[in-house]
């Protein structure tokens, strides 16, 4: 591969929304598409399935909970492509509604993957995003709902335009800590681990976009969070009202924003429309 080849990467892409996003990028992105998955066997099976449809993604193993795995993928992208054009951070987890796991464990595990691991991916891969690159962080309106259910002073902190990434990390850690001490409700937190994890992703996206503007304004990289909607997947089960193809529409739209686009940037987008939150 030459370093001038274009490349798009989708994490958690062996099934569900990630798989549907990968399929659409294979059809419409001018360059290679890398399907990344934690389980190599399932990832390769997903690649084979797309090959039967006449599509040709590449596979690379990625466990976003493993910093070494993230760095190995970063090195592969640098070596093969000299960087990255499109990053879709889709990998994530959710506990079922009736899961008996104690809430503090759910909070720790959900934030570990959905927020902290996604942040680690961004820490390694954002520096190698090429000019006119596109970054899409899969979030959820459940994050906006969690924000509304936070105590007012916490809402102000999350909405603050000068909140730093380190400040956000401290807030996320405090939420987990308060669930362990069984004081999260008293401290003004909502009782949704998934919602809090996605609030973190949305706010992280706003901060990352500001940082890109401060450091790489001329590169015109666009970074956004999006809500794919309540999609029928292993995660949502039969509660979902949308197909995975419908869920993929907004992430793909953001991933393929034309080179001369200047917005949206640092926004939460649903159904291709910027959301107020």
Describe this structure in words.
- It is found in: Cytoplasm.
- It catalyses: a secondary alcohol + NADP(+) = a ketone + NADPH + H(+).
- InterPro entries: CBR1-like (IPR045313), NAD(P)-bd_dom_sf (IPR036291), Sc_DH/Rdtase_CS (IPR020904), SDR_fam (IPR002347).
- With about 280 residues, the chain is an alpha/beta fold.
- About 50% of the residues lie in helices and about 15% in strands.
- It is built from 9 helices and 8 strands.
- The protein has helices spanning about 15-30, 40-50, 65-80, 105-125, 140-150, 150-160, 165-180, 195-215, 245-255, and strands at about 5-10, 30-35, 60, 85-90, 130-140, 220-225, 270, 275.
- Strands 3-2-1-4-5-6-7-8 form an 8-stranded mixed sheet, sandwiched between helices.
- α9 links the parallel β6 and β7 (about 270).
- α1 (about 15-30) packs across α9, α3 packs parallel to α4 (about 105-125) and α4 (about 105-125) packs antiparallel against α7.
- The protein starts with 6 loop residues before the first strand and ends with a strand.
- The model has no long low-confidence stretch (mean pLDDT about 95).
């Amino acid at each position: 591969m030459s370093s001038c080849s274009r490349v798009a990467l989708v994490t958690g892409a062996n099934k569900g929304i990630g798989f549907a996003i990968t399929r659409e990028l294979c059809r419409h992105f001018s360059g290679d598409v890398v399907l990344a998955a934690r389980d190599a066997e399932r990832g390769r099976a997903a690649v084979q399935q797309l090959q039967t449809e006449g599509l040709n993604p590449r596979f690379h193993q990625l466990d976003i909970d493993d910093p070494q795995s993230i760095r190995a993928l970063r090195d592969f992208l640098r070596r093969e492509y000299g960087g990255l054009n499109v990053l879709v951070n889709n990998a994530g987890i959710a506990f079922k509604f009736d899961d008996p796991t104690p809430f503090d464990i759910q909070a720790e595990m959900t934030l570990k993957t959905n927020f902290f691991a996604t942040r680690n991916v961004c820490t390694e891969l954002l520096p190698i995003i090429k000019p006119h690159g596109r970054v899409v962080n899969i979030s959820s309106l459940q994050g906006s709902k969690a924000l509304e259910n936070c105590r007012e002073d916490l809402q102000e902190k999350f909405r603050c335009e000068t909140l730093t990434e380190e400040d956000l990390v401290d807030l996320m850690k405090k939420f987990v800590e308060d669930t362990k001490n069984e004081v999260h409700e008293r401290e003004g937190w909502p009782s949704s681990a998934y919602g809090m994890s996605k609030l973190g992703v949305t706010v992280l996206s706003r901060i990352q976009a500001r940082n890109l503007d401060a450091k790489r304004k001329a590169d015109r990289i666009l970074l956004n969070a999006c809500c794919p909607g309540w999609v029928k997947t292993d995660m949502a089960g039969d509660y979902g009202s949308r197909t995975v193809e419908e869920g993929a529409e907004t992430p793909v739209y953001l991933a393929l924003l034309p080179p001369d686009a200047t917005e949206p940037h640092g926004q939460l987008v649903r159904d291709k429309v910027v959301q107020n939150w």
